[in-house]
């Protein structure tokens, strides 16, 4: 059958199109709802008028009947309840049969039993079953638990461990929002879409704490500690839920940051109660970890969404980035408020605030290391520079380590240059009265090949290019075209090699090292007795290879004055001064006409200051200086001075740890390989040299080291470390390359610095590994008695034979007259 065509009138079509119009706004829906409520109230009022009139008529008839029964002496209520019902049931029973009639009679008996006070057994049994079912359902709901996923943790081995926990199941009523759309003509109602709440809203809003009313009663200290631990565990669970939601979908959960910020404050604005210190620390650390995960690696730009038309995806990304930037700014402001309490004058400096400020500083250090190029990171760096000079060593150490990490990982050098500038400004403002960490953090700078004379070289290069340009102008037209094409090709090649980027990076590195030397020279010139002089000298020794040639002579004069005038200068500062001077003289300073004999004496005098104690790590300074003195400047040294340094170096190796002794022997081995002058020290004939060796003389030139030998090698050949024994035998045999006394390849190729590092036992690890003893029973050997007098054994035997045996109760004893034997 075909479809039947139906004609639709224009009125119905208009009504149909009217219903298909665009959905109403919220204001229009509210107006329609008010109109519907007014119509409904009017209808109810009209119905109430008619019902009241009908009720009056019924009440009048009932009162007449009750008055008639009362005049006859009967109870009107019983008559109505019993007779009326019985008559009605009898009339209905005449029309029923079978099961319907039986059910009707049973209901009648139940009503009579209820009226007389008797209990129906069937009804009592049904009520008991209903109560049992309700109690069982309640028990099942109380025992029901659900599993929740907690934040994963990372083990020391790098393995990700997932965690879950079981919590009580609490059924939450789902709030249903109804969208009723009714038309005035039909009064029809339509249910809209159902919307449910977010599952984390009750945890974020802390509904449990809001519902718990404080109870004022006398409690003990134990109750307080238990309540504190319970509150910490509850807040831990709450922080974990909030953080997991933020990491899962940060675009939709930005509002959850406010709940964490409330936990960071001293007084919670929502509950108006004090936050526990442990909870505040957990909140700060949790927010830091969230930002470390969700912050982008690039710098977020400001985009005006009102003035520009953007795509939907771009608009969502820009909105999220702006919201993230606002939350990050608010978090940094709170951290600044926490650190201001211990860093500014008039702050509340209590042990609790100091601990909280330490956590805040560590969190800022983590953010600076994780995202050094994000917005507001320069504000973090500026604040940390001021915390580098605070009065708390823990904070200074954390910031020092943070800056060293940033210096080593910074590829663009923008953040490095900014931090060095701020440190320079701080030292200049404080007039060199700063802590040592402000100087030692600069040791983390990766400065290798920086030419501070590049400006002069560029001027010379420009002059050459100008002369070359003049020659090009005199060329013919064809040659100029050819030169032009060749220049364009060369420019394209430089662009592909990123030469411009290298030049910009090199320029930043040059500016950094200029700023560093400005700090060092200001302290040396204005305050040579400053408490940071040791760190200044250490930095100069580290970066002496990049110092400008114009400063060499003045710097050497200043260091010589410090060595000679300041008697309270420690051995470490003296070693740094000598190291700086010899680094300068070994490089570009060879052109200077300076006699370093006084610096040899200072170095020779302080070589024995390091021992196998607390200052054993300072032996690395001596090793670096020995490389400059004995290896690079060996040709500028006399034979007497070289032998004196070898003798004193080997003497000092006797009271060092095994790694220091190995580094000493490695330096001696290298020097023996480079020169043949030292072979005389292996000869025990004392008639070779002139005079007598004086080990206490401070001048290596006149101590007559050629008249002695390296007797210490015999002691080191019986050292407890096997590698030291092998190295000592190798040097005693004259450093052979093969044959008897030769070293294995894996040991012979190591330098003195590598020997000092690889055989270090500070981590309780012995290199090489000590073998386990062989399992077996020890063999007991009977020893022989040794007597000083040869005839003592015979006399002792005679004395035992002459002894008298006396009997006691249980034992026999031998009585010996020692007094008569001695006479």
Automatic annotation (TrEMBL):
One of its GO terms (biological process) is DNA replication initiation. One of its GO terms (molecular function) is chromatin binding. It comes from the Eukaryota. InterPro entries: ARM-type_fold, CCAAT-binding_factor, Noc3_N, Nucleolar_cplx-assoc_3. GO terms for cellular component: nucleolus. The keyword Phosphoprotein does not apply. Residues 575-728 form the CCAAT-binding factor domain. Pfam families: CBF, NOC3p. Residues 451-510 form a coiled coil. This is Nucleolar complex protein 3 homolog. It comes from Drosophila simulans (Fruit fly). The gene is Dsim\GD19492.
């Amino acid at each position: 059958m075909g479809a039947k065509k139906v004609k639709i009138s224009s009125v119905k079509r208009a009504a149909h199109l009217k219903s298909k119009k665009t959905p109403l706004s919220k204001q229009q829906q509210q107006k329609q709802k008010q109109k519907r409520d007014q119509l409904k109230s009017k209808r109810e009022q009209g119905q109430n008028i008619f019902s009241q009139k009908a009720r009056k008529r019924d009440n009048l008839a009932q009162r007449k009947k009750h008055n008639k029964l009362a005049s006859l002496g009967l109870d009107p209520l019983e008559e109505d309840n019993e007779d009326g019902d019985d008559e009605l049931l009898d009339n209905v029973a005449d029309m029923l049969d079978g099961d319907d009639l039986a059910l009707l009679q049973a209901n009648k008996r139940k009503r009579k039993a209820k009226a007389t006070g008797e209990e129906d057994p069937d009804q009592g049994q049904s009520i008991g079953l209903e109560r049992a079912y309700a109690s069982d359902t309640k028990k099942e709901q109380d025992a029901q638990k659900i599993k929740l996923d907690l934040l994963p943790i990372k083990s020391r081995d790098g393995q990700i461990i997932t965690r879950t926990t079981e919590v009580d199941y609490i059924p939450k009523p789902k709030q249903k929002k109804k969208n009723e759309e009714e038309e005035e003509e039909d009064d029809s109602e339509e249910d809209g879409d159902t919307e449910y709440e977010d599952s984390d809203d009750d945890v974020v809003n802390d509904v449990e704490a809001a519902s718990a009313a404080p109870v004022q009663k006398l409690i003990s200290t134990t109750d307080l500690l238990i309540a504190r631990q319970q509150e910490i565990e509850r807040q831990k669970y709450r922080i974990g839920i909030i953080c997991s939601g933020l990491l899962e979908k940060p675009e939709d959960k930005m509002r959850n940051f406010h709940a964490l910020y409330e936990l960071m404050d001293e007084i919670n604005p929502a509950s108006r109660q004090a936050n526990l210190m442990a909870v505040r620390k957990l909140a700060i650390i949790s927010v830091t970890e969230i930002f470390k995960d969700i912050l982008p690696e690039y710098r977020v730009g400001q985009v005006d969404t009102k003035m520009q038309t953007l795509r939907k995806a771009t608009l969502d990304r820009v909105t999220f980035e702006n919201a993230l930037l606002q939350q990050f700014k608010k978090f940094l402001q709170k951290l600044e408020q926490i650190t201001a309490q211990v860093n500014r004058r008039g702050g509340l400096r209590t042990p609790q605030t100091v601990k909280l400020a330490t956590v805040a500083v560590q969190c800022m250090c983590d953010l600076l290391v994780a995202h050094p190029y994000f917005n507001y990171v320069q504000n973090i760096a500026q604040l940390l520079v001021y915390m580098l000079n605070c009065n708390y060593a823990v904070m200074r150490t954390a910031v020092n380590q943070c800056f060293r990490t940033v210096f080593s990982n910074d590829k663009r050098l923008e953040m490095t240059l900014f931090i060095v500038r701020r440190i320079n400004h701080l030292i200049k403002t404080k007039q060199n009265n700063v802590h040592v960490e402000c100087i030692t953090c600069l040791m983390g700078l990766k400065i290798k090949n920086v030419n501070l004379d590049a400006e002069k070289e560029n001027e010379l290069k420009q002059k050459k290019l100008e002369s070359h340009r003049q020659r090009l102008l005199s060329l013919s037209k064809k040659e100029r075209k050819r030169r032009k094409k060749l220049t364009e090709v060369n420019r394209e090649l430089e662009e592909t090699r990123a030469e411009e980027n290298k030049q910009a990076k090199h320029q930043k590195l040059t500016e950094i090292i200029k700023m560093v030397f400005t700090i060092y020279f200001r302290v040396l010139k204005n305050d040579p007795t400053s408490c940071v002089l040791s760190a200044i000298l250490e930095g100069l020794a580290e970066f002496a290879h990049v110092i400008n040639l114009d400063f060499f002579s003045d710097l050497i004069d200043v260091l010589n004055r410090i060595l000679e005038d300041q008697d309270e200068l420690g051995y470490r500062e003296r070693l740094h001064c000598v190291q700086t001077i010899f680094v300068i003289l070994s490089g570009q300073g060879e052109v200077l006409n300076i006699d370093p004999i006084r610096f040899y004496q200072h170095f020779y005098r302080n070589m024995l200051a390091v021992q196998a104690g607390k200052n054993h790590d300072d032996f690395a300074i001596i090793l670096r200086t020995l490389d400059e003195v004995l290896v690079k400047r060996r040709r500028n040294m006399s034979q007497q001075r070289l032998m004196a340094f070898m003798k004193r170096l080997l003497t000092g190796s006797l009271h060092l740890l095994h790694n220091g002794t190995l580094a000493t022997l490695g330096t001696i081995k290298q020097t023996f390989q480079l020169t043949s002058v030292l072979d005389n020290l292996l000869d025990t004939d004392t008639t070779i040299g002139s005079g007598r060796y004086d080990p206490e003389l401070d001048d290596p030139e006149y101590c007559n080291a050629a008249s002695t030998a390296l007797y210490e090698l015999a002691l080191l050949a019986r050292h407890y470390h096997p590698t030291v024994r092998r190295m000592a035998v190798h040097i005693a045999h004259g450093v052979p390359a093969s044959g008897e006394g030769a070293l294995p390849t894996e040991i012979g190729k190591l330098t003195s610095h590598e020997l000092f590092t690889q055989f270090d036992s500070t981590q309780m690890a012995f290199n090489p590994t000590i073998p386990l003893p062989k399992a077996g029973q020890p063999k007991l050997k009977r020893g022989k008695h040794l007597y000083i007098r040869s005839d003592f054994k015979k006399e002792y035997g005679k004395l035992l034979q002459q002894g008298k045996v006396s009997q006691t109760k249980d034992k026999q004893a031998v009585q010996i007259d020692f007094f008569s034997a001695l006479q």
